[in-house]
Design a protein that fits this description.
Blueprint: H1 8-20, H2 26-35, E1 38-39, H3 40-46, H4 52-64, E2 68-73, E3 79-84, H5 86-113
Antiparallel strand pairs: 1-3, 2-3
Length: 115
């Protein structure tokens, strides 16, 4: 659905997506997994300040919404690897658009701040 005007359905859709992504670590976990599949401790190290519970909750939420895949390998001890799903890869277009918007509009904002 294209939202040429700010319609109620468009606003509701955007609000729903923003609710889902409101978690503190959600965007950062997705960007890490867009780089490569990672195990839990590797993700935790790459995200610096994330605590175990926060990362666990974020991964469960992303898995529940089918944005990531969780694969368990039968090793001793068990190895679990997280990777981005097709749905998650599709969302990377939104990241690209956010970056494009920021790049396009950042310069005038910076010029305004320096006045």
């Amino acid at each position: 659905m294209e939202c040429s005007k700010v319609e109620n359905t468009c606003v509701a859709s955007i609000s729903e997506v923003l609710q889902f992504f409101s978690g503190k670590w959600t965007f950062l976990v997705l960007t890490e997994l867009l780089k490569e599949p990672q195990r839990f401790n590797q993700l935790r190290r790459n995200l610096d300040n994330v605590n175990t519970k926060g990362l666990t909750d974020t991964l469960r939420n992303l898995e529940q919404h089918e944005m990531i895949r969780r694969e368990v390998f039968p090793t001793v001890p068990v190895t679990v690897e997280y990777s981005i799903s097709e749905k998650g890869k599709a969302f990377s277009k939104v990241f690209n658009e956010i970056n494009r918007w920021k790049t396009e509009w950042d310069s005038p904002i910076q010029q305004f701040k320096s006045l």
